[in-house]
Write a structure and sequence with these properties.
By secondary structure, this protein is of the alpha/beta class. The chain is built from eleven helices and nine strands. Strand 2 (about 30-35), helix 2 and strand 3 form a beta-alpha-beta unit. The strands form two sheets. It has a seven-stranded parallel beta sheet, sandwiched between helices. It has helices at about 15-25, 40-45, 60-70, 90-110, 145-160, 185-190, 190-205, 225-230, 255-260, 265-270, 275-280; strands at about 5-10, 30-35, 55, 75, 115-120, 165-175, 175, 190, 210-215. The protein has one domain (about 5-280): NAD(P)-binding Rossmann-like Domain (Rossmann fold). Helix 1 crosses helix 7 and helix 4 packs parallel to helix 5. Bound molecules: nicotinamide-adenine-dinucleotide (NAD). Nicotinamide-adenine-dinucleotide binds near residues 34 and 39.
């Protein structure tokens, strides 16, 4: 039974909210991050986890090894998310997302941690045609170096499940926000309670071996077939469609290419390729 759970990135938006949810579900949590909570979004949700957060830099393997000792599972949110309008420099993505994620997986192997839940991203599918309904078996078409770092994490998950018998759930998060604020999010949004439910499935499901699921609510306009999540027991409670559309921004609408591809504006940031070629090469 999974009881002792480490949450990395616990000061961030997803990490802090999920920690709050997992704590209510009775898990004994250890929280870590490179810094204390500073995100206005997390603060505005009145989360008082700050004093419990241990300051650990995931780039430091010996520290990661120490903090994962005795854990049953790790929920890995720590890393650099994609920042607007451009992504971070590749060296930072290598250090925090690639080395940091490797350190988490490797420390789990050394310490015989049974399960890992990895915060992947739907941007690993970025260059697919939006007219194509994707599922967990669709091939990667990452739209940024950030997305490549998530492909790396998902590849690690295959290695560590087959070779080291760790059960792993990759959650390809769409847009985790308190509520949808842009038209895109009608397709990609996940509510916090649905995200917590998916993480809990990763910690509990007896059917889990190594799966990738989409981190979305039951959105009417979803572009992703989440059958693998449903097989594991996911029953999303929310649907982006239930929110008023009046005040939604339309950030992608001035960019026809972004509107055609799953990754939206991530795909057109620095784009030199042609849409026709991207669509031809499925
Ligand atoms: N929020 C979303 O919509 C979304 C979508 C797709 C994927 N994700 C993924 O989910 C995870 C959490 O995203 P978020 O939106 O909460 O981002 P966030 O920036 O709010 O949280 C990430 C946390 O990781 C911490 N961190 C970064 N580098 C670290 C290091 N070397 N050692 C320890 N901690 C470190 C940061 O301090 C931060 O608190 C990220 O991996 C992100 O890529 C989020």
């Amino acid at each position: 039974m999974i009881k002792k759970v480490l949450v990395t990135g616990a000061s961030g938006l997803c990490g802090s909210i999920t920690s709050q949810g997992l704590s209510k579900l009775g898990y004994k949590l250890t929280l870590c991050d490179i810094k204390k909570i500073s995100s206005p979004a997390a603060k505005s949700l009145n989360i008082s986890l700050n004093k419990k957060i241990k300051i650990i830099d995931l780039r430091n393997f010996s520290k990661v090894k120490k903090i994962t000792k005795g854990m049953d599972a790790v929920v890995h949110f720590g890393g650099i998310p994609r920042h607007k309008p451009h992504e971070d420099v590749f060296q930072n993505i290598i250090d925090h997302n690639i080395i940091g994620t490797y350190n988490v997986f490797e420390a789990c192997r050394v310490n015989k941690v049974k399960r890992i839940i990895f915060a992947s991203s739907a941007h690993i599918m970025g260059y697919h045609d939006r007219k194509k309904y994707l599922d967990d078996k669709s091939s990667f078409r990452p739209d940024s170096h950030y997305a490549v770092s998530k492909c790396f994490g998902e590849s690690l998950s295959k290695l560590y499940s087959d070779k080291y018998n760790i059960k792993i759930l990759n959650i390809r998060i769409g847009s985790a926000l308190p509520k949808p604020t842009d038209m895109r999010f009608l397709s990609t949004w996940i509510s916090f309670r649905d995200l917590i439910q998916l993480v809990n499935i990763g910690l509990k499901s007896k059917k889990l071996y190594c799966s990738s699921v989409y981190g979305i609510s039951k959105n009417k306009r979803a572009w992703w077939n989440n059958k693998e999540a449903y097989r594991l027991g996911y029953k999303p409670l929310d649907n982006a469609e239930n929110y008023s559309k009046d005040k939604l921004t339309k950030n992608e609408y001035k960019d026809k290419i972004a509107l055609r591809l799953h990754g939206g504006v991530f795909t057109t940031d620095g784009l030199k390729g042609k849409l026709s070629n991207i669509l031809k090469n499925k």
